[in-house]
Amino acid sequence: MNVIATELPGLLIVEPKVFGDARGFFFEGYHRERYRAAGIDVEFVQDNYSRSCRGTLRGLHYQITQPQGKLVQVTRGEVFDVAVDLRRSSPTFGRAAWILLNEENHRQLYVPPGFAHGFCVTTETADFAYKCTTFYNPGDERTLLWNDPTLNIPWPDLEPRILSAKDERGVSLSHVETYP
């Protein structure tokens, strides 16, 4: 496996070693000791899966008192995946990073606690899987406005764009509750 550091400290791209032949392919989606050796030394407590249609935008979500680290990947289709550093003490506070995750590149993104996270589906459907370091707590969840102009995120121009009411009501970076 190859781990690539991004410009945002702790945000890591994971490229698993994929073994392919005429039958298809195989790769390890997670191996605790290998990930620990690569700097992802966390305990995952919950796995989540979603399926979304083209144009669906989910996020940018974060939990304020029980921040979640996430190891995210796409098992079918493609998403434009985004993470925003909300750690107030970080030199990259308020900066966003993005990557295409899809069933062809098998890439994963490790989003550490203290980041907002979201994605937009660019194919007809996408299956999205992720591991979390803390349990989901709906009362603790907050939403950073996905299209806040200060974030400069080049979201794919897809119509129709499909958002939940919660995601439409996200707050701007200047109004988010942040981590220390």
Q: How would you describe this structure to a colleague?
A:
With 180 residues, the protein is mainly β. The chain has one domain: Jelly Rolls. The protein is 6% helix and 41% strand. It contains two helices and 13 strands. A six-stranded antiparallel β-sheet has the order 1-2-10-7-12-5, with no helix packed on it. A hairpin with a 6-residue loop joins strand 1 (2-5) and strand 2. The longest helix is centred in the N-terminal third of the chain and has 6 residues, at 32-37. The chain is globular, with a radius of gyration of 16 Å. 34% of the residues are buried. The model has no long low-confidence stretch (mean pLDDT 95).
Task: Supply the key terms.
globular; six-stranded antiparallel sheet; Jelly Rolls; mainly beta; five-stranded antiparallel sheet; 13 strands; 180 residues
Summed up, what is this model?
With 180 residues, this protein is mainly β. The protein has helices at residues 32-37, 165-168, and strands at 2-5, 12-15, 19-21, 24-26, 46-53, 57-63, 70-76, 78-85, 96-102, 108-111, 115-121, 125-132, 141-143.
Write the layout of secondary structure elements.
Blueprint: E1 2-5, E2 12-15, E3 19-21, E4 24-26, H1 32-37, E5 46-53, E6 57-63, E7 70-76, E8 78-85, E9 96-102, E10 108-111, E11 115-121, E12 125-132, E13 141-143, H2 165-168
Antiparallel strand pairs: 1-2, 2-10, 3-4, 5-12, 6-11, 6-13, 7-10, 7-12, 8-9, 8-11
